[in-house]
Amino acid sequence: MPLNAAKPLEQSPPAGFLPDFRRFEALFPLLLLTELAALVLSLSAEPTNFWIDLGGRSLFMQWIALGSAILLTLLHRPLARLPDHWSGPLAFLLVQAVALLTNWLVYLGLPAMGWFFVLVPADQIPTVLARNMTVSGIIAAVLLRHMTIHARWRSQIKAEAEARLDALQARMRPHFLFNSLNTIASLLRSRPDQAEELVLDLADLFRTSLRRDQRWTTLADETALARRYLNIEQQRLGDRLRVEWRLDALPEDALLPPLSLQPLVENAVYHGIEPLPQGGCLEIAGTRRGRRGALLCLTVSNPIGPDKQRRDGSHQALDNLRARWSACFPREGSLELEQSGGVFHASLAFPYLSRADDE
């Protein structure tokens, strides 16, 4: 499989400001807020039988909430393609249409068929309908406005994460470039074939780091890129750098942001292996967690010496990677750093997504 062959997830339709109501974390807050609104309205009405009034009002409002969620989910893609100043009012009108249909069914449609009975005099039904539609409109406007603000906030966070990705892709540690060129120059006469191989590895590294049109890659391509980097460092450090790969437990088609593994490997070599006179073993391992192994974990481990043998750093690469990870995998993704027994562990956890899931 060639490098950078993964299909970018950005090719999928835009998400818009509406959440995916098929997810529990989006549907549950909607139902909870609807129930709270029903409770407030029942308390303010001071009915003769509070619990009966609350039950009927809750059932009525939950019908509107669930009907609106179903309709907005069915029309999610068309609404997402529209500008916010069109999709927002249109979503509001759709919610009001569901509320109007529910009111008609409860007060007129079902009672006329003998399936439902409402203790509301016929002359008061227009007033009750107007009141219910007003309440529905206020609640819908508030919720849709909240969704719009939340979506803009998420877009801002994503834009900042992508800007950090661009900054990370635009930089390559100067010492690595100079050391690589010196290593290649030393091999030109004695081992020209190996020098040519290192030039190709270095070219692939810079080609990937300078790309701007790719936001996702496969685990197979990411590990291939890390192997090219380690091949260059292996020629420079020799026996001081030993590498163990234990990734058989992970699927090669898993999607993750580009330049996710390579910065961790570079960090381990630069801050862990290289300062040690005797070098050390760099271990790259993969495990599966969660239900049915849906959560993948990628761990880079390296030995560390005493404080005087460690290099100080700004942790910019790790901060950038953590920001990108939280933007790409807001619910299940994490970057965990741990130091124990003279070994430093950097673990990336992310859900298993493949190109088939994207399509």
UniProtKB/TrEMBL annotation:
Pfam families: His_kinase. Keywords: Membrane, Transmembrane, Transmembrane helix. Residues 163-241 form the Signal transduction histidine kinase internal region domain. It comes from the Bacteria. One of its GO terms (cellular component) is membrane. The keyword Ribonucleoprotein does not apply. GO terms for molecular function: phosphorelay sensor kinase activity. The chain crosses the membrane at residues 26-45, 60-79, 91-118, 124-144. This is Alginate biosynthesis protein AlgZ/FimS. It comes from Methylogaea oryzae.
